[in-house]
């Protein structure tokens, strides 16, 4: 399983080159470039069970290729980074939190992070773990770090699109002996590399822009600390939160177009954010890549690309609902990162501290002029 047999790493180069080759095995005559999914609950296993492939809940060759690929994107050219894939982003998130924390420990979570974090918080507290929260913006988590064992960062935050200074938070956390995990879902590894910024874990949902077609649930954890990663691996084994081989293979296949999708979607997201900013009415548009956005200064220092999610606020719930109904090229759906644009009134779920008219929009791979025109038309039509 050494990195040397891995073409993506050997080829170096830019993000597009890396994405198309990431995790591919050495060419074998008359074998496919990307080996197909290996469907196996068990493997032939004579004698001592030394592996690498013994039982399908522990390891699978299709995961191995995908894990190498994601590792190359999260930490290009770096040896010693281990990646583990999971059944979903929440499986990956839970694996880090529940494998690293014990009763009596303290963890710091964002107060404005992913929707399921409050559920996780309740479970952590039920196990006797103290949970503190603070907002992402203004690096406010610094204020509640004292004595913590683990700091969980989500930047840019979903759905508020606030950004915190990863390096600054890592420095403070490490000084106090805490590990740091960064939820890298929104940025993708092409947008941000938390391990290079000092984090101990980069954790993400691969369900979103990483795989980008809205047809796969996946999660992963990348980390450099062998002991910490061994605990995460053990958690995956005992909980069994494993991706199916077909999902893992589809995800790997999707990585080949990651750079293309990200470039297109993110460029259109910026164009849309600019068009919304230039409207006569005040929409409170947020996009970390928009100069002047409260997140932009720190984002520009630590991000290479700014994501495909744009948010803005319509005056009322009714207006937001009319707007969503008026859209023709944008599906009213949750999640984000897919090649087909989606938007939703985020307040319909409850739980996020957002106004009733808050719209979270995920920009897809449509032609930018078509998409921007559709959104501006729907804004006009819903203004009755
Ligand atoms: C979607 C999401 C998750 C959870 O991922 P699933 O694949 O749905 O389990 C975690 N964090 C963020 C920021 C997300 O957007």
TrEMBL record:
Name assigned to this protein: Cystathionine gamma-lyase
Modification N6-(pyridoxal phosphate)lysine, positions: 208
Position of the signal peptide: none
Region of interest (Disordered), ranges: 1-21
GO molecular function: cystathionine gamma-lyase activity; pyridoxal phosphate binding
PANTHER family for the chain: CYSTATHIONINE GAMMA-LYASE-RELATED, TRANS-SULFURATION ENZYME FAMILY MEMBER
Keywords: Lyase, Pyridoxal phosphate
Matches recorded under InterPro entries: Cys/Met-Metab_PyrdxlP-dep_enz, Cys_met_metab_PP, PyrdxlP-dep_Trfase, PyrdxlP-dep_Trfase_major, PyrdxlP-dep_Trfase_small
